[in-house]
Write a structure and sequence with these properties.
The protein is mainly alpha-helical. It has 20 helices and four strands. A hairpin with a 5-residue loop joins strand 2 and strand 3.
Length: about 425
């Protein structure tokens, strides 16, 4: 029964996301969202829109989404929603095209879930089974992620304040590691998570610095945008029921560990650490508030996962049916609060600017953490060969069409695993007992 439900959810996510993209209601790719008004206002034809969607999405699916998903045995949401953006925009903007996009999206979702399991099963048949070693890709990523608020502070307020934030973050982590076990009685003990508490401390410091930054608070730009683009906000609210269903399905899928929204929470979910996964997803969602809110107000197009709080709900609520309801409610609240969020960002311009720096800091941290994790995984597969990924990293930088940096670690580890099997068949490598 659970297996059937998993396929039903993934099919529904694929179908509905494709339909939303086909009807220009919501797209996942942040770079595609600002382009859609060009099509809606007849300044761009369907072929150009489809070509743009493919150009900015396909490489991320192949080079980033799939390797990360294989490494954790859980689907990274980019694999689904970037592809459904492509499917939706390539199908004609007609009733038949809408139906076709839904069917193709559903088939793709099922094929992705089934295919991922097939790949995992094939790995288990290899003479050098390196699937277990791929778990090292996410090793240490929680600690690395706890540092991202310090990097954000450094980007926005200077290295000195960034260093102070990093020191406090690591100090909190060490204090919790030493004194984080609280005995309630002889049989029950509460254990605080050191990495989660360190992340929380860093986030608090980051938000305090951001709230104190009033620079540029002279024009109520976002509030003005909500007035100028009132019809765009009304368009999003018109489609609130279907967007709510989309958010609920994503939350339910995350609840069942089918999918996750980013590599870090995905890795933690694969390890069964749902609380820390939820915390990291929450931190990421905070960073996406300014981007999603502003692009929604100006384009009239939303994101299928909204501001990504639906992933937090799915991670923290293990029951998919409750997660479905909560996720749908979350999207409704987000849409209803678009104007309020815009006004709030005007009152705290430092927090608004912080959103961009959060995403940049996360990118830095994820790039490095996944590279190190990839090296550790490669070392576990073939001792002394892990540094091969460094060469892969450098060669990728020299490529005319390089992969996104965060894909190099997981993809490099898989490549080392495949090389180990080829060398084994050639009698040039014997794995340690």
């Amino acid at each position: 029964m659970e297996t059937i439900l998993r396929y039903v959810i993934i099919a529904a996510v694929g179908a509905l996301a494709s339909i939303l993209a086909n009807q220009s209601i919501a797209v996942f790719n942040d770079g595609l969202r600002p382009v859609l008004p060009e099509y809606l206002e007849k300044r761009m034809d369907r072929k150009a829109l489809a070509a743009t969607s493919f150009a900015i999405g396909f490489g991320l699916v192949i080079g980033y989404g799939l390797p990360t998903s294989i490494a954790a045995s859980i689907i990274l949401i980019h694999c689904i929603l970037l592809t459904t953006d492509i499917v939706g925009t390539w199908c004609p903007d007609t009733k038949k095209g809408m139906i076709a996009s839904g069917v193709i999206g559903a088939v793709y979702g099922v094929a992705l879930l089934f295919g991922l399991q097939v790949i995992i099963d094939l790995f288990n048949l290899l003479p050098v089974n390196f699937l277990g070693s791929l778990g090292q890709v996410s090793a240490g990523i929680t600690l690395a992620f706890a540092i991202f608020p310090a990097v954000t502070v450094a980007l926005q307020f200077g290295a000195a304040k960034g260093i102070i934030t990093a020191i406090v973050t690591l100090l909190v982590r060490q204090i919790v590691e030493t004194y984080g076990k609280i005995a309630l009685d002889a049989e029950h003990t509460i254990s605080l998570n050191k990495d989660g508490m360190a992340l929380l401390a860093g986030m608090i410091i980051m938000l305090v610095f951001a709230a104190m930054d009033k620079e540029g608070n002279d024009q109520n730009s976002n509030e003005m945008l909500t007035q100028i683009f009132a019809d765009k906000v009304a368009r999003i609210r018109k489609y609130m029921p279907i967007l709510a269903l989309m958010g609920g399905l994503i939350a339910a899928g995350t609840s069942m560990s089918i999918m996750a929204g980013d590599p870090i929470s995905l890795g933690l979910l694969a390890e069964g650490d749902r609380v820390n996964a939820g915390l990291t997803a929450l931190a990421r969602a905070i960073g996406f508030i300014p981007l999603v809110a502003t692009t929604a107000i100006t384009t009239g197009v939303y994101a299928p996962a909204g501001m990504t709080f639906v992933f937090v709900i799915g991670l923290l609520i293990p029951n998919p049916f409750i997660a479905l309801i909560a996720g749908a409610a979350c999207i409704c609240v987000e849409i209803l609060l678009l104007n309020v969020i815009a006004k709030g960002l005007d009152k705290f311009p430092g927090i608004k600017r912080c959103g961009d720096n959060i995403r940049t800091a996360m990118s830095y941290v994820i790039d490095i953490a996944l590279l190190i994790g990839g090296i550790l995984a490669a070392q576990a597969i073939m001792p002394t060969t892990g540094l091969f990924i460094v060469a892969f990293w450098c060669i990728n930088k020299c490529s005319k069409k390089p992969l996104v940096s965060m894909a190099v670690g997981p993809l490099g580890a898989i490549l080392v695993g495949l090389i180990a099997n080829v060398l084994f068949l050639l009698s040039l490598y014997t794995p340690a007992a």
